[in-house]
Design a protein that fits this description.
With 289 residues, the chain is mainly α. It has one domain. It is globular.
Amino acid sequence: MSTTRPQWFGHAWTFLQSVAEKFLADNGFFYTSALAFNILLYFIPLSLLMVSLLGYTVLDSERAMNEVKSVLQSFLPQSQQAMAEGLAAVVADRGLLGVAGLVSFVVFSSFLFGSVRIVLNQVFHAQQSRTFIRGVGIDLLITLLVAALLLGVVINTSFVTIVWTLAEDYPSLAPFFTPALTVWDRVLGFVAMVALFYVLYRVAPAVTLPSEALLIGALSAALLFQVARWGFAWYVSMAQASLVLYGTLGGLMFFFMWLYYASLVFILGAEVAWFCASRSDARDKGSLA
């Protein structure tokens, strides 16, 4: 046991070092910046579309609006009331904004997933390239798959809100529903995140890595993303004084940092998947020899 553990740490350190070296060799920070910018453009119509969908379901309830206001108050203390009023106006005009959000969502999706294809082709060392028509078709397919995942998130949000409302109406059920809903929401959120990374790693690039390698990469990216969420929440709670001072500007700064980190995590997960696939190929060739 005393020799096995150091060997395991040595292999893990070598693996992480190799991932970092390949990330730098692939111009990872440059692609991270490009992805973060495209995600920012993508986030605007996505927000309109999500708010429009929630406007027909969850946000019609008073409790959901109070939850939104409390979240805004936590992150943007000086401007949460104005943003809550703006959100209520968006919900009131959800039909028009839903159409605008859908059209712009499709347009900016092509920009984002086109850049995702370029990044993953670079990371996975894809030799062959797709035709323009096939590339556009792949972008549309990814858009539909991501939209299906988002629809699942909206349905889950509606379900959780309905159950919370029932728990408030029947206090005797609260001790059962509270832990169950908490576990359900966190597990389903993590599964959705893994599914999102896996779909992008599987469909977007011109080459297809083994499913096991893609799953390991998706799990790695999702774990890094979840750890960052906890760290981000802790940092925001510790920086309340700065948020009060800078208001909306501070919230935007954290938001831009979060987009950059999400892009970084996405590329690192792809690097992990590529290394797992490379080691699997090396073992297969060694066994054949």
